[in-house]
Amino acid sequence: KLDRDMALELVKAKLKKERFEHTIRVTDTAVKLAEMYGADVEKAERAAILHDYAKYRNREEMKRWIKSDPRLPKDLLHYHHELWHGPVGAVILEKEAGLDDAEVAGAIACHTTGKANMNVLDKVIFLADYIEPGRKFPGIDEVRGTAKEDLDKACLQAAHNTIFFLMSKGQKVYPDTLHNYNHLINIIT
Length: 189
Ligand code: DGI
Ligand code: FE
Ligand code: FE
Ligand code: FE
Prior knowledge:
By secondary structure, the chain is an all-alpha fold.
């Protein structure tokens, strides 16, 4: 069983100093969002602590996980390796670190791209990673403002900005990134 302090020790050993500090800020942000929007605060805290666990895994190792674990979508291999650490991290945490909470694992898995029909925990982690106080994306202050009022709308703005950024760089957009955007457009009136 992976408790809070064990999770913190685990990621501290795996992450560089700046990444660990990002993780702490994501955790503070996620706890606040969870309280505001009625997500399970303990699960949000756990997912946030662990969300970037696989960030510095060897690329070839992550590729092997994607190829061998039936739960991991194979299309990831056709997209940027930056997208792999969430889904691969969720699987590795279950297999190697005793993470036994499917909701926490699910939120970790989709934290980079989002996906259609995210639950409130998924949204809290997706948004906390985007708006934590150390981030400096264009348009982020608007998203931080929206996050105080409307979780879905804030997630939509984050998805919009990310897609805009990727297109401006001529980069591919992963299908779940678009599915997240399209889903949120539909539920916001
Ligand atoms: O791990 P972090 O740096 O804390 O943040 P993250 O897991 O949200 O990863 C952010 C990066 O992922 C950022 O550079 C944008 C990129 N990203 C998000 N969606 C997509 C994407 N990159 C590509 N190529 N395609 C996507 O759909
Ligand atoms: Fe990440
Ligand atoms: Fe993110
Ligand atoms: Fe992160």
